[in-house]
Structure formats: C-alpha cells, structure tokens
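Human: For the file, kindly provide a plain-text protein record giving the amino acid sequence and the backbone structure tokens, at your earliest convenience.
Assistant:
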Amino acid sequence: MFTSLALLAYAYLLYPVVVWLWGWFRPLRVRRREITPRVSVLVPAYNEARHIARKIRNTLQLDYPRDRLEVVVVSDGSTDGTREISIMAGGEGVKVVSLPERRGKPAAINAGVGHCTGEILVLTDASSLLDPCSLRRLVSNFADLSVGCASGMLVPPRGGAGLGMYRSVENFVRASESRVHSSVGATGAMFAVRRSLMRKLPDDTILDDLMIPLNAIRRGYRCVFDRRAHCIERESITHKQEFVRKVRTLAGNYQAFMRQPWALAPVVSPIWFTALSHKILRLFCPALLLTLLFSSAAAAWQGCPAAQWLLIAQGAFYLAALCGRVVPPRLRASKAFVPYSFCVLNAAALVAPFAYFTGKAGVRWHKEPAVEHAR
C-alpha cells in the first residue's frame, strides 16, 4: 500500500520538483542567439481543407526572412481538396507534395523531407497556428551546436481546465528536463530538427515527436524545450478526443522505448533517469492506483486507521471524478473537475498496452468533430 502511494507521489508530485531543483542548481544552459538559417516548414496533412489555407498564410506571415523560408505541404491521400486548396493558397516558396493514397503520417513526413532544402526542418500540424515570433525564437536554439532538436509550447484554447492543468505541468517538466539535458520528446504540434539528423522513419512509427528527438539524442545532441515559442491550438479537445489521443501517445511510448532501449540504460543514456521517471513510470500508474485502492481497502477492513483515512480520500477523489463525468461538458472547465481529467488520462494508460500489442494504435490520422475557436 505505502509503496504504491510513494511511487504515485513521486511520479506526479516529487519528480517535477526533483528535476526542477536539479536544473536550477546545475543548469545546462542553451546558448541562444539570433540566426537565420534556411528553414523548411513541413506540414503533413490529411483532409485538412478547413485549415490548410489559413495554416499556409500563417506560416508565410511569420517574423522570419521570407527568402530563408519555404513551406512544404504533404497531402496524405486527402479526398477533401486539401491538395488543390494548398496549391491555390500557396505561391513562391510553397511546395505541395501529394501522395496518391493514404499512408499515414510517418510516410507523409518521409515524402516531405525529400523536398525540403532547409538546414532546419520544422514539423507542425495543419490545425495549429504559429505565433508570429515563434519560428525565430525556435531557430535561435540551434545557435548552440549541442542542440539537435527544439520544440515550443502548445497553447490550448480557452476552457477545459483539467486538461489545461495537465498540459501546464507537462510544459513545466519539459522545461526543467531541458535544463538538465534534454526534454524526453517534443511538442508534436511544433518542433524543429537539424536536417542532417533526419533519418527515414519506419512507416509504422506511432510518435514521430518522440522517435526523432530520441534519434538526435542518441547521436550526442540535445532536445530542448523553448517556452518562448508558442503554437496555438485552434480547436477545443474533448475528454473523449483526449482519451483517444492519449492512448495513441502512450502506445507510442511502448513502441519507442522497445525499439530504442538504450535510452533507459544508465551511463549509456544521458536521459535514462528522466525517461524512467517521466515516461516509463507513468505507464505503470494505473496499476499502482488499483493496487493502492485494493490494498488500502484490505488494510482498512483489518482496522488500520491510516488505511481507513486513505480509503476515504480515494473515495472522495473518485466521487469528484464521477461528478465530472455526469455533468454537462460546458461545466467541466471548472478546476473542480481535474480529478475527472486525471482519471481519463490514467484510463488511457491502462488501455495503451493493449492498443499497442494488438496493433490498434495506428499511424493514420483519425478526424473527429471538434469546436474551433476564433483567434
């Protein structure tokens, strides 16, 4: 019982403090300065007719020398006119690559990389907008020759306090890990990598935003997180959509670390401690939560006062989560329903290994209705 409680407390409370203190007292700083290498912004897209024109305009209007910037849009077998809209919205400096059939995001990235001429590649989602200064700030990290990969911060739309709090904690942890050595993974909506470090991704890669940074770290580079570079999410994500997304993300963690076990090896890997604490331990948290619940119930039945109070606390927490499930979605923006978000994310962690080992965590986009926010 107490072992489970200690591990859960470490994963969610103590580790963020430990890595922050480590980075505070022994920081490995990034020597940033303004540079303007040629940059290729790669936008893989599947059926993004609603967003792609605005995405192209947003990218071309970034605060970056126009003659040092190119945009490469890859339509992954889109059937809604994404390719045609991209051609009309683009112009000089915009390349549109069209795959005849839908093959998945890794194949789209591989196809796009072959058409990129920049020293720095920036991978970004079609449904997200970049802050005007974000590209210049992101690229400044590569003035430090130890940096191979850099990612920015995803800013969610208003509402959804539970998920917003989770993302705030993740941003805090990634920033702290960057000061220690490298963040474990990148922000999928916007991250940059040196062109020389790009290798062809296997077509079944689930998480390009984890595999690409791991490849860079393995070759002796750092993956850093830059809070100054913002990518704005244009659509609200429901808890159902977040559950599906999180199942895929966590299944991708299984895949990445099974294919690159070196990342978890002490001495060999500069990120073994952070990877174990941040990524691997989180995969076991659902089992720890269930163990804590049943072991505290058994101890409480035997009359242990500490177990009784612990059981009451768990009951109150899960009751709050249940309230978050039954109330109207518009009311879930309240911070009172953080327990519901916590349970949704841990339920995803429980499902993730089954999704991965049964092959149900695919590499293709899954388009679901979402609520778009005006900016």
In short: Residues 1-26+128-366 form one domain. Confidence is low (pLDDT under 50) at residues 367-375.
